[in-house]
Write a structure and sequence with these properties.
Strand order of the largest sheet: 3-4-6-5
Strand content: under 5%
Distance between the termini: 111 Å
Shape: globular
Number of helices: 24
Order of helices and strands: HHHHHHHHHHEHHHEHHHHHEHHHHEHEEH
Length: 580
């Protein structure tokens, strides 16, 4: 009787501990979601980014005209346009039409919060550690804060983190609903942001690579090819009744199988407890490859033709990636947080007993390479790398028996919650303060020619149907948003011959002109420029000002921008009109 009571008490104690653990987890999850959302809201900028402006106008054009594969916003004639994120542009326009800039900002805040929470949730489901997942989510959002903007990439960040989750869940369970989710994500990205669609397939490669290495290792170590050859030879000899030779071959087969059996036992032990790299041969990879092939066919289900399959190739053979800041190689010395993250990876791998999956090692190596070749890929390194880092940290804690359970229990108590809220509140306030003090507007007038466009539209008397403005790359999107035809804007692909089908490389003409690599008058003569709008501190404006160039009549000037009338260009335009 006493023994039964003791067992009953022990069971009750275990149930109470399990119940407390579940309760602690639930409390921390709620707290984590609130604090992550607060931080994500704090880092979301009020001022809109230049891509947002053309997204609104392109969405409006799609709504009114449809996808005509032609650009309607530049004064250059006959520019072909691929509409690489047509669905995102259309959705952005609908939000703007219904709620103006307030709606754009609110949706960006919501997407930022969804991204932060998704990073936390996916890490928690994969690594089973609440605290580590929370810290990683905050850390990732801090690393990519400068990329949080009303752009299509914010949506694809969310889809990419869920892609990794669905891949891992499919490999673990072989439940086809995860495969269906992957197919739907591929379809969504092909229509929302086709430029990054190829990266979706890159996420499959580490898992496939691990399977191939494991399969090759098994084939070599287990002498599978040699065994098959010997068995085939044995069967042939048996049919020919060459018993003596067949017997010798059989001895070789038995000897080889005995050696393989010993190798197999050693290998199984190494797989269970490897030195540093864990290799798993997951049989579900074969089905994952099938899903990947189906996902590749989703590029056909778009209104933009073969753009999903040709966009990356055309981009890579062009000059745009070599001249746009976010596409240039990353210098580690300029990115201290990223450098510290890499050091943490190396420290864990070299100086601790933590072990890494081969697929994670492939993922980490591939992401690092992509990041070093193109600085914008630091976003992918941070988001996807968080899963690898989380798995490493949790494995390290388990091996040193220093789990975070004790700290987690402290944090869900009232005092711990207050401390965590205060720390995250102060951290978030650091990014909220500029919004509160400066009362930031949606359009930064130091970056975009707001007043200059007001002048052009309302006071200048310029006939926009005939004028040919020369403008700079960074604010062209704002000008077309205001209805002023542009020389160039941040849709770099549109202005390169690989995409637009023209002989002129408008993008490189702009680069060379803005850098004074060529005399600006040569470019203006080539394109028949009638008016010029540029930053007040631009090299071109400094030359025009210093030389008092009589060909340029200053129409407008403020603290940031100037507008000129190019007299020879206007005369040329008038002559053409008279001849017509």
């Amino acid at each position: 009787m006493e023994k039964q009571k003791s067992i009953f008490k022990s069971e009750n104690k275990e149930k109470n501990q399990a119940s407390k653990k579940v309760s602690s987890n639930v409390k921390f999850i709620i707290l984590a979601v609130i604090l992550i959302s607060l931080f994500c809201f704090a880092i979301t900028p009020v001022s809109l980014q230049n891509d947002t402006f053309y997204s609104i106008k392109i969405g409006e054009h799609i709504q009114n005209v449809g996808i005509d594969m032609q650009d309607p916003f530049s004064w250059h004639e006959g520019l072909s346009y691929t509409y690489p994120h047509w669905l995102y542009d259309l959705l952005t326009y609908w939000i703007y039409a219904a709620f103006n800039m307030d709606g754009i900002y609110i949706v960006t805040c919501i997407l930022s919060c969804i991204l932060g929470i998704s990073i936390y949730y996916v890490n928690y489901k994969i690594n089973k550690n609440n605290l580590i997942s929370f810290l990683l989510a905050v850390g990732v959002m801090y690393l990519i804060k400068s990329y949080v903007a009303a752009r299509a990439q914010l949506v694809t960040f969310i889809l990419f983190i869920w892609t990794v989750y669905f891949i891992e869940r499919f490999l673990q369970t072989k439940k086809w609903r995860y495969g269906i989710f992957l197919i739907l994500i591929s379809l969504a990205i092909a229509n929302l942001h086709v430029a990054v669609w190829p990266f979706f397939f890159v996420l499959f490669l580490p898992y496939i690579g691990e399977y191939i290495i494991a399969a090759l290792g098994d084939t070599i170590l287990y002498k599978k090819i040699s065994l098959k050859i010997l068995k085939l030879r044995y069967n042939i000899l048996k049919k020919k009744s060459a018993e003596e030779k067949a017997g010798k071959v059989l001895e070789k087969i038995n000897e080889l199988e005995s050696r393989v059996a010993k190798i197999k036992n050693v290998r199984e032990q190494n797989i269970k407890e490897p030195y540093k790299i864990k290799i798993e041969r997951n049989k579900n990879i074969k089905f994952l490859i099938l899903i990947m092939i189906i996902c590749a066919l989703m590029g056909l289900i778009t209104p933009t033709g073969d753009t999903p399959y040709t966009y990356l190739y055309k981009t890579m053979i062009g000059n745009t990636t070599q001249n746009i800041n976010e596409h240039l190689p990353m210098t580690l010395s300029d990115q201290l947080p990223i450098m510290c993250t890499l050091i943490i990876f190396l420290a864990i791998l070299i100086f601790t007993k933590a072990k890494i999956k081969l697929s994670d090692l492939f993922m980490l190596g591939g992401l690092t390479y992509l990041m070093l070749t193109s600085r914008r890929q630091l976003t992918m390194f941070a988001i996807m790398g968080s899963i690898v880092l989380g798995r490493l940290i949790v494995d390290m804690f388990k091996r040193y028996n220093t789990g975070s359970e004790w700290l987690l229990e402290k944090l869900v108590k009232p005092v711990g919650m207050v401390v965590l809220i205060c720390v995250m509140g102060l951290f978030s306030l650091n990014y909220m303060e500029p919004k509160i003090k400066l009362k930031q507007s949606y359009i930064d007038e130091t970056a975009y020619p707001v007043k200059a466009c007001d002048y052009i539209l309302n006071e200048s008397g310029i006939d926009l149907s005939k004028a040919r403005f020369y403008n700079e790359y960074n604010y062209g999107s704002y000008m077309l948003f205001r209805g002023i035809p542009v020389f160039i804007d941040s849709r770099a692909d549109l202005y390169s011959p690989e995409f637009n089908g023209l002989d002129e490389d408008i993008f490189m003409d702009f680069i060379n002109t803005s850098n004074i690599g060529v005399f600006y008058e040569d470019t203006f003569e080539k394109y028949g420029i009638t008016h010029v709008i540029c930053y007040k501190n631009a090299k071109m404006n400094m030359i025009i000002t210093k030389t008092n160039d009589p060909n340029y009549n200053l129409l407008y000037s403020d603290n940031n921008f100037v507008v000129y009338e190019r007299l020879s260009g206007v005369e040329q335009m008038e002559e053409q009109n008279d001849n017509q």
